[in-house]
Amino acid sequence: MSDKLLEVQDLKTYFTITKGVVKAVDGVSFYVNKGESIGLVGESGCGKTTTALSVTKLLPNEGYIDSGKIIFDGKDITNLGDKELSNFRWKEVSMIFQGAMNALNPVKRVCDQIVEAILLHEDVTKKEAMERVKELFELVELDTNLMFSFPHEFSGGMRQRAIIAMALACNPKLIIGDEPTTALDVMVQAQILDLINDLRKKLHMSMIMITHDLSIITETCDRIAVMYAGKIVEMGNTQEVVENCFHPYTEKLINAFPNIYQERKMVDSIPGDPPDLYNPPKGCRFAPRCHKKIGDICDSVEPTLIDYSGKEHFVACHLRRNS
Amino acid sequence: MNMRFIINRLIYTIFMFIFVITLNFFLFRLMPGDPLTIVSKEIASSPEGRATMEKMYGLDKPMIEQYFDYIKSMITFDFGTSFNYKQPVTEILFSKIKNSLILGFASVPIGIVIGLLGGIVAAARRGKRTDMVITTTSMIIYAIPTFWLAMIFLMVFGVKLGWVPINGMATPGVDFVNNIAYLKDLFYHLAIPVLSYSLAIFGSYLLIMRGSMVDVFTEDYVLTARAKGLTEKQVIRRHVVPNAMLPVSTMIISSLALIFTGAFSIEVLFSWPGMGRLMIESVSRRDYPVMQASNYLIAVAVILANFIMDILYSYIDPRVRVE
Amino acid sequence: MEMTDNLKKLKDREKELKRQKLKNNLKLFFSNKRAVFGVVILAFFIFMAVIGPLLYDYDHFLYFLGPRVGFPTEEYKLGFDELGRDVLGAVIYGTRASLAIGIFVTLIIVFVGATFGIAAGYFGGLFDIVIMRITEAFSIIPTIPLILTLSAIIGQNFSNIILILGLTGWPSTARLVRSQTLSIKQRNYVERAKAIGAGDIYIMMKHILPNVFPLIFSNIILLVQNAIITESTLAFLGVGDPTIPTWGQLLRSAREQGAISTGSWWLFIPAGICLVLLASSFVFIGYGFDEINNPKLRRR
User: Fold this and answer.
1) Which of A186, B30, B63, B221 has a C-alpha 20 to 30 A away from that of C291?
2) pLDDT digits (tens, 9 = 90+) for B142-187
3) Hey, are the CB atoms on B159 and C261 less than 8 Å from each other?
């Protein structure tokens, strides 16, 4: 019996726009083991959110999965029908969206919205669902008396907790958090991250954490996948990757975060702009901005993700191939 | 319920009320034409006759006194006698309002409901052909002057096809055998006016509802609702429509209040004996008592409707309730 | 000097960006088939208003050119109205009246409404409260009886009608402008302008006004449509300048002459169609602008 909860194989998700097709995710493969958390990190527009939306099938109308397979708990969910999709969503995989401040319907009570999710997937009475909401509130450290409030009566941090509570309502196997703490101030952010860590361990849930903030990943994720321009460029155990990063982009990314322990110096930024995904460059997509380019091969041949060290540390770079 | 809010609104409403009737008072004093002559040319032509009439109508008193008399009579609904009809104004108003209400309540709800439904459908299929057809059609209907459309209907259905009578509210000179016969006759007389009136209303409702729905569709909580596993229909019904209705609800109360005003051009065109036609008649014939009374009633209806609307709105939009 | 060089580069870049944005918006607008259709129709009517009178001779005071409410003939393609006037001529000349009313009423409404709206939104406080109360009072009073009363007071000639329509129509625009002003007021450049000591009038004219305008553009277009239709309704109800032909008046006289019962379609169908087409064109264009400003309306 495989340990893998989610396996994404060569996923290609494209968007149709007026002038053609944008290849937002172009051949992404990764897996998430049961009870494990993986962080998806990269610049804005690199395809992390699209990947997540592809897994949960919540792509907007212009988006579609061109090819690839998504296998969840041994079952191929790439082409799930509507009814099965309805059952699958939230019960197996739930999501916390970016800017979740507004993820709650302003004219409905918070408890009613969570109850709605529960009643959709579990065969219980409304009363039992309400009880569950109480439990969930306690789980996320929210005052249960506030159950009957409306969303606007909550502060930002409280709303976030409520949304986490809602995401956990049906005991999903996998929870995907898309920048769940970006809109919060640092103190609240720390609390929420602690909460998420605790819950994960308690409920033995898998998690995909999407963010551009490396520090969050180092705090909450077992493994890390670095994305650039619709592809994964490096993937592996978080500690391993951060300490011994292989890909030049990862290196730049890590250096872009100021380190308290290092001496004070200007933080490096990455020059240039991300490539146009409507017309992606041939060869390695990072090549135009890469400071460790080794030559023509970088511009003409696309590197593939390979585990060089044997320690499940994958990297897509021609540099490594030669060493 | 928030008492402060209600009292606040009440005070405001009273001020509005005083402002409007004061405005009315001065407006009518400014109109050209000698009211006394209109009542009775003969009597007014002689100086003694004039003096007597002035005393009778209180026109010899100073302006301030006249003003307070006016306010008193308005509040006690003592409207005097119509110059034209030589009947108590109150009686006239009652019968006319009744007719306007019949026409209004037969047409306005239909127009609103169809407009809202159309807006929902168009928004659900936005960007597709159905949307294009629905929206363009309602734009054209919205642009058509109501009375012209009514004229065409009259000519086609009334004259050429002879299906319906072409004016009035009831076939003149007929004594109805029983209520059923009366209702049947009324129905035929109502048909085209109702058709025209509801078409006049539905255009703006459709367009505004569609706009509101489309705005709501892009909100995060709609994506959350989908992620929870709700079908698109459920999402629309439970999350999109309730929020989209908020701005529309104020319009609805307005439209209902305007039923009391009477639909001017329709009543004139169809010789429907309602408030609208009465008001227009009274202006052109300088029937001051009627003009004053009808303007007053309409102001009361609209101001009252606004007050109710404010209170009701705070019920349906929980965000407003706090203050 | 380096400072002025950089400043110049910034300004050039800004101009370039604005030009790009304009080009994109125009492209977007013209890809909206409905809006383009509206523009074509509007152009046709403008043409008719300007060139029509030159090509076709019509004298509004020439009565009895033919039988009263007379059938169309070879020469007078749309027949005759109740005074024996040429209907086709009235329709053509009516275009000018409708466009004039649309434009001038809207100008008044925008001028008064925007002034009150920006003042109320910008200064806030008592100013805001007073202006908003006046606005609400005006919007509470049903317009048509008010217009009827006002027109009975000051007379029914053309300019008075334009004045009345303008002065009764500004409240909703004022409200809209005020809410836009409130959101623009918060923006950075306004704060910065204040910080360097810019006067209120300067800020209102140079920062707020130019930014409010694009947002109310579609509303302005719809105001024109509203003015034209309201005038026609008023004319139908009997309020109008008898010396200037408008489509609404044609429709009124058609009804008074029993055109419906006699089936004399030429008296009211052409004028009505013109009204519908002209009004629709404004609605299409107005909503076309709406879709540019609010991209949500376009996508699925």
Assistant:
1) B221
2) 999 988 998 888 888 887 777 777 777 776 666 666 777 778 888 8
3) yes
| ipTM reported for the complex surpasses 0.90 | no
- The CATH architecture that domain A4-92+174-180+204-321 belongs to is 3-Layer(aba) Sandwich (3.40)
Backbone φ, ψ for residue C172 (5° rounding): -70, -35
Residue in the structure block whose two tokens are 């172009």 = A26
In 3D space, the residue among B48, B108, B76, B118 whose CA is nearest the CA of residue B263 turns out to be B108
Determine how many CB atoms are found less than 10 A away from the CB of residue C97.
25
Question: Does residue B189 carry a pLDDT above 80?
Answer: yes
Residue A279: exposed, middle, or buried by beta-carbon count in 10 A (0-12, 13-18, 19+)? exposed
pLDDT at A322: 55
Q: For chain A, give every domain's residue range.
A: 4-92+174-180+204-321
Q: How far apart are CA A38 and CA A237, in angstroms?
A: 9
CATH homologous superfamily, domain C48-297: MetI-like (1.10.3720.10)
Q: What is the mean pLDDT of each run of 10 residues along chain C (300 residues)?
A: 78 86 83 89 91 79 72 74 77 88 93 89 84 80 80 83 90 88 79 79 79 84 92 88 86 82 81 92 90 65
**Chain C: residue nearest B158 by CA?**
C261
3-state secondary structure string across C129-176: HHHHHHHHHHHHCCHHHHHHHHHHHHCCCHHHHHHHHHHHHHHHHHHH
Helix, strand or coil for residue A163?
helix
Q: Is A61 at the interface with chain C, CB within 8 A?
A: yes
d(CA B241, CA B123): 10
